[in-house]
């Protein structure tokens, strides 16, 4: 479990293709690896990956073909920057919202509109996720906990403060670039419990 508060901008050091459409990814992140052990979870652009090795500030993780196909991790290259966050510890502050690191879909940046103290960024919204995205609700974009400013049938927008632009990969992404989305897990559980009942 994560909070969507990015701790560090990491860098892809190596991508090695594995068997059956899988890969091994090596990521430089001195902060997140400072206490990382084999089996720990680290969020990479919003995808929960399991540490298999940690040497000199670089951790490696196996990435299944399913993850490569259903997230933007498949588009990463050596030298790409990535958002990194260690798993939340019980008793720590929850600065963002509850984030599982389970990507629900991939969106693309549609527009960026600079303002005096922030930037409004609009993203495409996959139709199968639209019912979970609400104005003033939480959404995770590339592992970053953000508040939805506005939403329509096929897009949503967020306000991004300068710190978010500077400290995460979202600041350097261009129109058309892919991003990982995770919707609020509470909304999915509520939907399942209601089971289609009219309320």
From TrEMBL:
Pathway info: Cofactor biosynthesis; riboflavin biosynthesis; riboflavin from 2-hydroxy-3-oxobutyl phosphate and 5-amino-6-(D-ribitylamino)uracil: step 2/2
Gene3D superfamilies: 2.40.30.20
The reaction(s) this protein catalyses: 2 6,7-dimethyl-8-(1-D-ribityl)lumazine + H(+) = 5-amino-6-(D-ribitylamino)uracil + riboflavin
The protein's name: Riboflavin synthase
Lumazine-binding domain sequence ranges: 1-97, 98-194
EC number: 2.5.1.9
Pfam families: Lum_binding
Biological source species: Actinoplanes philippinensis
GO BP, one annotated term: riboflavin biosynthetic process
Keywords: Repeat, Riboflavin biosynthesis, Transferase
GO terms of molecular function: riboflavin synthase activity
Lumazine-binding repeats: 1-97, 98-194
């Amino acid at each position: 479990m994560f909070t969507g508060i990015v701790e560090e901008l990491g860098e892809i050091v190596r991508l090695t293709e594995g068997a059956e459409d899988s890969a091994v990814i090596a990521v430089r992140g001195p902060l997140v690896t400072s206490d990382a052990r084999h089996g720990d979870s680290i969020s990479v652009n919003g995808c929960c990956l399991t540490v298999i090795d940690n040497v000199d500030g670089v951790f490696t993780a196996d990435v299944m073909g399913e993850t490569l196909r259903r997230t933007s991790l498949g588009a990463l290259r050596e030298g790409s920057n990535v958002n990194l966050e260690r798993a939340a510890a019980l008793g720590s502050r929850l600065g963002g919202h509850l984030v599982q690191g389970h990507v629900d879909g991939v969106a693309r940046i549609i527009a960026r509109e600079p303002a005096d103290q922030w930037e409004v960024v609009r993203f495409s919204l996959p139709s199968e996720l639209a019912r979970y995205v609400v104005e003033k609700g939480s959404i995770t974009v590339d592992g970053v906990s953000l508040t939805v400013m506005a939403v329509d049938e096929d897009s949503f927008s967020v306000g991004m403060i300068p710190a978010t632009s500077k400290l995460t990969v979202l600041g350097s992404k261009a129109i058309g670039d892919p991003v990982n989305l995770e919707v609020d897990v509470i909304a999915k559980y509520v939907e399942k419990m209601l089971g289609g009942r009219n309320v």
